[in-house]
Amino acid sequence: MPRNIRILTTAFGSAGSGPRDTVERNRELACRLVGVAGRQSADLVCLPEDFLTPPGTPLAAIHTEPVDGSTFDALARLARRHSVWIVACWYVPRPDIDGGIENSAVVIDRTGALAARYVKVHPTIGECREAGSVPGRDAVVVDTDFGRLGLAICYDIGWPEHWAELARLGAELVVWPSAYDGGFPLRSYAWTHGYRIVSSVLSRNAKVIDITGRIVTSTSRWHPLAAATLDLEKELFHVNYHEEKLVRIQEEMAERVVVETFDEEGVFTVQSLDPECPLATIKARYGLEGFRDYHARAERLQEEHRSRAGAEARP
For 113, which of 46, 68, 141, 163 is 20 to 30 Å away at the CA? Predict the structure, then answer.
């Protein structure tokens, strides 16, 4: 059946965010936006990288607090009250390292419990030199009640291998808290790896991006909130060997299915709207082969022919 998730993301640089000159005001803003998300029946709300530190603060004086500090407690209460998942990002002190900190994204579940913590694997030069940021080591993907959620933070955008690892770990949705918008690379990663990406930023344009790399919704310079509903069951397919099936699918399933084709890319997506007919049933009924499975089959055949050619070329 469809796996719909209601997502609300935030941009703290939008005019509607109001003054952000103290840690307390930033915490209050975060709580206010989470409350809005809860009242809109969101399943997931995302907050930006380092949303607690006031703008213009030198890196050497960046705000830090423990994972289990006042910000976590406030967000956990809201998670319980509204039954919503929260991804939030702030700097956490490392007591075992003199002056050491970690740029951390925490995942809070609907009960207010800590479900996962990711430490930014690729902090910036300034973070390392001026703030004492200690890089993380591993990509993180966590199981939620709606699917598998992966994490990346800001400068991680420059390392394609990190995003490939999230795909290898089975991420269906990646949340990217950041200081800036990110732009085209996010769309490229969504397309390349077939997962959805949600950005949440200190700038103005936080986005929800679907598996085709298309921007579903975005915040703006005026408004700090954007909401979208995504179906995590929706799947991408290559057109090869499927061309004659698409009209038949729509003819027979009518309003119970959504088919979208992308001409230049040579792909299409299928989404079931019928709880009694999940996408797996549609794939089996019409002989649809998923994009990844098709490419895996092509690779196996390529290797078979490569091996055969090598054998036949031997003297």
Answer: 163
